Amino acid sequence: MASKRCAVGFWITTALFAIHMTFTAYAQLKLPQVAAAFAHLGFPSYFRVELSWAKFAGVIALLVPMIPTWIKEWAYAGFAITLVSAVIAHLAVGDGPAAWGWAVGAGVLLGMSYIFWRCSRTA
To answer: Major location, coarse class (predicted)?
Structure first.
């Protein structure tokens, strides 16, 4: 029963996180206001594009069941570094919670996804 709860928890939190990351990756590629936000943070344009494609790859790594465990672990680590870096970048330029709150919320979902994933693997 515990493994089923872990699996359901994993898929719910991971799906929500994947939707969020997929939307932000798309927005980083297509929306000029998001490109302006990256410039505001001091990042070069190529970084925005590179980060978008890395997010797409990470979402695939988390959602596809046949992906090896070590790749999923790296995807989780990469997302964690990305989200912590986003909060730090926003704080460094003096942005308020409206700017960095989304990264914190995504980080909570990521952490819950990881906990449920580990739980479902050990149960």
So the answer is: membrane
